Structures are given as structure tokens and as C-alpha cells.
Amino acid sequence: MKKFGKQLLLASACAVLAPPGMALAQTPDSAAVDEIVVTGSRIKRTDIEGVGPATVIGAAEIAKTGIVNVETLLQRLPAAAGYAGGQGNAYWASRGWGTATVNLRGLGINRTLVLLNGRRLVNGGTGANSAPDLNTIPTSIIGRIEVLKDGASAVYGTDAVAGVVNIITRKDIDGLEIGARYGASDDGDGQDFTADLAYGVRNERGGLQFAASYQKTKPVGMLSRAGCQLNGASGSLICLGGGATAGGRASLPNGQIINFTGGNAYETYSAARHGFDGTSYINAVNPIQRLTTGLFGDYQVTDAVQVFGEFLYTHRETEQSSAPGTLANFVVAANNPTNPTGQQVTLIQRRLVEGGARMAFQETDTFQVTGGARGKFGADWTWELAANYGRNSGRDGFTNIANKQNVANTLNTAVCSFAAGAAIPCGDYLGPGDVSPAVLKYIMATTIDTGGNETVNASFDTAGSLFSLPAGLLQVAAGATYRKDKGWRDPDNLIVLGIANSNQQSPIRGAVEAVEAYAEISAPLLKDLPLIESLRFDGAIRYSDYKRFGSDVNYKAALDWSVAFGLRARATWGTAFRVPNVAELFSGVTQGQLTTSDPCSRYSTSTNTVLVANCQAAGVPAGYSQPTNAILTTTGGNLNLTPEEAETLTLGLVWEPRFVSGLAFTLDYFKIDIDNAIRSIAGSTKLSVCYNTPSRNHPFCTADNFTRNTLTGEINFLSSQQVNVGAESTSGYDAAVTYGFDVLSRRATWQGSVTYLKDYTIIPYPGGAPIVYRGHIGGGNGGYPKWRGLTSISIEDPKWSASYTVQWIGKATDFNAAPTAIGYRTPNVFYHNAQFAYRVKENATLAVGVDNLFEEKAPYLPSYTDGNTDTMTYDLVGRRGYVSMKYKF
Predict the structure, then answer these.
(1) Model-level pTM?
(2) DSSP characters for 419-459?
(3) Is the pLDDT reported for residue 466 higher than 90?
(4) Which of the following CATH numbers is that of domain 4-228+283-324+359-403+447-589+636-682+720-888: 2.40.170.20, 3.40.190.10, 2.10.50.10, 2.40.30.30?
């Protein structure tokens, strides 16, 4: 946290770059033209509706939510699903811990393209990451967020498979704006403080806009929200810890499983008596401290040429508390003085509780600079030449990591000594509290890794009208781009050598480079005919040449038909693609303890005859119960990956009935089919598919995918590396309604949207049985409920405003649990949020709000990630309130 003084000085220095002598004259975004460039097209249009299904969230709407993190706002959208990063699920974002991301359609954060003012952002995290950090843009300078829920690879290139999130900055800041927000939960924890500053000046030739946001959030302990680690296998929910015990769970030569209980005592292992519950060590919300700054400027060199520039800088410090580390699978000789059994024992798992919690920490610096020029020529032609460079660098690590080589030394009586002050002290690991301070000092280490991401982009775009057709002007756009994305990561040497008792990793270094060109056309076909007020065709083609993967061509075709009586129909078909990113290609094989459900746990009580027969055939003992919810899993990249290819289809209706002013309906059908999809199949999913296939006749059942301990039956190896799977497809419906009306001379607005997931299926290999995600949740995959919804109503008065929002997460079933298991089916969950704002003075507004008003509890899931639930879907904190103040000078 010491660097924040320097970062604040940097922010102040940026602020003074805005010359105070410039006349303060506001120029609106649309002052020059009635049309603007919208997300999903390079052709100027009057609105975004003609491009495809989209959600536009304006600055005023953002303010009414009280949300200060962009990812929270986007993850509430019904079109969001699956796995995404945030403060409540930092453990499940790989090297992106603390990074905020969004996952449209549940297709993955790497298939949602994130843009700032139509240009790509550098990826965020601590090295070789897959997506930008959404919180690298100060919220006070966000003018609107356009979310295009449609494939757009023909316009933007790779990654725009599920959709595009385009964050548009403000140009209307006139003078100084300051704001502050303070919030806390009902329990008094999770305090969150945010301060915003925005300053803008403008005259007839140009202007500067500066913004800065500072956020500091304190943690929320998991114990206070989730209580103990719950298990429902016995028929009722009971506290049942994992098999990595404080005293040490071990096997004797005859296969008996024992647990050391202290001193020289040991007894037969019992999960109920000896299981370790790490809930008290982890957080439901992780602390974060972040400074985000942005400087945006433009200057009219001549009447026809304007130059512009953008600069972003973010410094972030985050940390996550984790349970004490686990020593696994090491032998204590029969003649070791610390071994009370008189037999050689294999210590299966032993928590190093004496060392306390492990603390994961991250510190990242991200900056991006953009420069360019734009201008006009001819009757209505425009051009833009732009380039940007972005770099993210990170430093992360773990405290209290055991050096396995040093642990081995403490067990080797030929090199260690029990004498006080010995250079290599002998260790006693058989019993809770038996590890001495001297041994801890010798075996414990702090690992520090470094890494980063880099992007270089250059583009030229031009757009205008070619000639007039009977129905209007034929508009075109064309351009070319160059892009190079780099990523690297250098793990601590102890991790690279496999000596650290943590996820083994190899260094990562690689780049993806491309040259692309595109053309786009918008042709009015008909107008002013019966049932055809207007009919327009839009098309696009993009040629991409990747240095590693060769060339590819993608297309898009769309029809926009204004029928009559306010009814409009639209259809879009397109191809999309995504090349493997640096992490997917170049990440070395790593190992880590990941949350996984073993279907053979307590299989003897199951009514599933196929499952029972398969577990018996695999040699799993009849009384076997999974000792811990985490299994050692191999993950990593794959140099043999090839690009994904996709087809997208959307069909939609927009109805704005002319007999009801302010009312609008939209209904869209979407279908996305991906071939050769790049995916890591979750370990829980592999195991479930294997053991539910008759005679285990499935490729997931091979020794390349997992193995079991022949004595205990528990899984001791599981692979979840990136592969090109057979196919991945999803389809469904989006519906929305907006209604603006007057109530007692005050303006009210009601907005509602819902997404119905009709299908989400993965074919793991050509000809393989489908894996169905639709309607399921948990197991580290995130949530894919059939229904999601979001509705809000707001009322505006000259002196005050009020808003009320309800988020709906529909029913779902656990990905891996048996239908008879407790928690197999989750209920509908509704989160209610309210805000009231009052204009204290003409330029001052005070707001108070409450989120999760009725303190909706997160439902229990058997294959949870943390906190007995799916932290990527549900809220663990409970009711929380906030107060904010904004003032304009």
C-alpha cells in the first residue's frame, strides 16, 4: 500500500495538464453530426438499434444504481452467465485474481470483446491473461456503456464471438466534479470507500477531460456469512471439514487410514471428528485498493482535421486470505522419532495450521496511451488514423508456502537435528500443534511471481456515402488494422522447480500478431411502401492474417426492416472466430488444488446402478467418502490449439406503439455455434460423465484424465488442460420493455429485461455425447440458469429521484450432484436494490441506497466453489447500505 502516495501525486500531476485559461464552453457529443458511430458498426447511424440486440447503460442510469465497479453492473445483466471475475470469487480467476471481467452468454470472458471508445484495451492481471480489467476506466468519466449481444468478428476481429462491451467516455465535463461514497454491510464489515474527481475544460478549438477514482474496500470474512463447511451426504446438512487435517491423515502399510490427534496419539480417521474446516481463513469479499486515472483530449487543428489523445493509468493492490497450506503424500519412516506407530506411514494430507493462513497478494500497474487524428473530406466522408500502446505489469505471490525440499530435510534424521538452534531442525508433523517455530522458520517461504501483458494496435478507418439510391444513400466503411498482443509470466523459482508446496508452474512467454482489413456496407433497399417504411441491408467482410495461424475471412449480413405502426424487424447472420490467446497457447502445465466433486463419494447409497457398478469396477471402497472438496488438478496451455470458428444468428422485433408514447418492446432470438471450441473441461464434469457412462466406456475415463489411489480410492491425479473440443453451442431469447410515463407531474421510467437460455451444450470431442450446461450451476463453471431477469423503476423530480431494481436468477440444478442430494436444485433468487437521491443545492446531490434489501441468502450447492454456494452467481454479503455525495463547481 506504500505506493499509493506516489500514485496520488501522479493523478494530481495529470490534473494540472488541463490549462485553466481555456474558456469553459460545453460541446455535446452530437454537436457536429446527427449520426454517431455505434458499437458493432463503423458506419455512422442515428442509434444502435439497427445493428443488433443491444443494451445501452447511460451515466445517469449508472448513478442510480450506486454501483462503483463496472463488472458488478454488467454481471447483473440477464445476458451474463457462467464464470467471471470479481471481489467475491477471486480464487477462480487464475492469474487474474482481483481482475474484473464480464462473461456474455456464458461463453467465456475471452469471447467477450471489451473496447474503450471503439478500441481494444490491454489485458489485465498478473501475466499472460485473457481479458481486460473493466475497472481500469474511472467511473466518473463513463458516458455510457454499449453492450452488443451479437457476434461482431467481421467488424472487430477475434474475440467478438459472444458480443462486445464498448465503454464510451464523456465529453461534457465542464468544470470540476467531485464525489464520495461510503458503504458497509448490515454486519458492519466490508466497508467500501470511493472518491471520484472529474475536471473538464473546452473552447471552440478543443478540450481536455480528466478523471480519477480511488477505491478502498475492506474484507468480509467467510465464516460470518457461510458458517462452517457444509455437507449433505448424510441426508441432512452438517459441518464436515476436508481430509487435509490439522494433525495429519495418513495410511498404514495395511491400508488403514488413521489421523494423528496430538502428542503420540492417533486413531482411525473419521471425517466427522477430524475433518478440517478452512472457512475461518477465507473471505466472502476480498480487500482491494485501487487508483484509476484517465486523461482525454482533442484539438481542432483545422476545420477539417482534429487530433486526439487518451491516457489511462491504474494501480491496484489486492489480496486474498487462504487456508493454511497442505503437505501431501510424503513418507515418515518407521524409525523416525516422531512416528508413534512403529510402522512406515504415508502422510496423505496434513494442514500446516501452525504457520497460519496463507495470504495471496497482487500488485498491478496498467497504462494505455492512444493518439490519432480524424477528419472530413468530400461531401460526408470521414477518416481516422489511430494507434495505441498498452502495458500491464504485475507482481503477485503467496506467504506461508512450504519448501518441500526443506520439509524432506526435516524428516531425514541423517541431516536434521533435534538440538536447539540446529541449522536444519528435525520436524514433527504427526499431530496438531507439533510443528515447532524453528521448523516453520526453516520450511516456510514467500513466493513472488512477476508478469504482464502488452498490446500494440494501429488502425485506419474511413466511412462515407458512395451515391444515392432510390431509398437513400449507400453508405460504406473500410479500414485496416495491425495488432500484436504479448503476455509473459515468470513464477518464483521455487514454483518453477516444483519445490514450493503450491501450484507448480512453468514460465510463460508468447505473442499473437495479426494484420487485418475490412469493408462494410449499408444499403437502403426500399422505403415508403405499404408495410415497408424502410428496408436496409448491412454487410461486412473481414480478412485476417495471423502470423501463427494463417489467414481467415469472416462475414456478416443483416436486414433492418421498419414495417409499420412502430414495428421493426431485424435479422443478422455472421461468422466469427477466435484465435488461441497467449495464456491458452503458451502456459506451461501447472498443478493445483481445485474444487471438484467425486461422483463415487458414498456411491454405495446411490440408486444409480450405472454409477454404483462403475465405482465398484474402479476399485473404490464401498464406504469411500471424498475426504476433501479439492483435488490436485493439472491445468495449462496447449501449443497444438487451433482457432475456433463460429456462426451467429439473431432474429429480432422492436415495437414502439405509436398510440402509447414512451413504450417500447424488443424480442430477440440468438443462436451461436462454435466449432473446434477451446475449453478446459472442469474436472467435476469429466468425472461425472465418466462414471455415468455404462462400463466407463468414455475417453474421459482414461489414465490421461485421472487416476485413483489404490488404497484409499481417492483421486490423486486429474487433468483439465486446454483442448479443442468438438463443438459448443448456445441459443435462447432476450426480451425487454421500456416505458416512460408521467406520475403526478414527475417523470417515471420502467425498464425490464429477461433472458431465456434455450440451450447450452458442449460436445467434448467429435461424435461424443453432449455435456449440457443449460439449467445447471456450480462445480467451478458458474451459473447457467434457464431464466435471468432485471427490472427497474425510477421516478425523477426536480429536487429528488428514486429508483428500485430487482435482479432475478432463476432455478438451476447442481452440475454434479445426484438428484436426491440436498441442494441439487436451487430456488429462484431475487435481489432487491433501492436508492433515493436528493438535490441539496443546485449543484449538490446526496444519495442513500440499500442493496440486497431483503437479505436474500445464497442457496446451498453440493459442488460449491466457496462458502457452500456458487460465488460467481450469488451474493454472500447480504444487506448493505451506502451514502454518496456529488458536487459540481
Answers:
(1) 0.87
(2) STT-SSB----SSTT-S-HHHHHHHEEEEEEEEEEEEEEEE
(3) yes
(4) 2.40.170.20
